[in-house]
């Protein structure tokens, strides 16, 4: 993912963090914001994904992120 290509409509989109160390390190989350260096992603929000903006986003290297579809209902539990 390249920060320069992000648009305001990308806020809230689902992403997967994949640092390349195997599946056990992958995490799913939602984009909260970004700056010139990092994408801030909410990975944990007490399963209140509709309120993800109320949670702190983790600074994540955009090279470790890919857009994904939203999780299945069982993934939200």
Structure overview:
The chain has 77 residues and is mainly β. It has a single domain, classed as SH3 type barrels, CATH 2.30.30. It is built from no helices and five strands. It has a five-stranded antiparallel sheet with strand order 4-3-2-1-5, with no helix packed on it. Strand 2 and strand 3 form a beta hairpin. The radius of gyration is 12 Å and the shape is globular. It starts with 13 loop residues before the first strand and ends in a 10-residue tail after the last strand. 12% of the residues are buried. The mean pLDDT is 89.
Notable traits:
77 residues; single chain; SH3 type barrels; mainly beta; five-stranded antiparallel beta sheet; globular; 29% strand
The top level CATH class name: Mainly Beta
CATH 2nd-level architecture: Roll
Q: Give the distance, in angstroms, between the N- and C-terminal Cα atoms.
A: 28 Å
Integer count of domains: 1
**Which percent band covers the strand fraction?**
25-35%
Q: Supply Rg.
A: 12 Å
- As a percent range, the share of helical residues equals under 10%
Strand order of the largest sheet: 4-3-2-1-5
Poorly predicted parts: none
What form results from the Cα inertia axes?
globular
Class from secondary-structure proportions = mainly beta
Report the oligomer: single chain
* Topology as a string of helices (H) and strands (E): EEEEE
CATH overall fold name: SH3 type barrels
Largest sheet: 5 strands, antiparallel
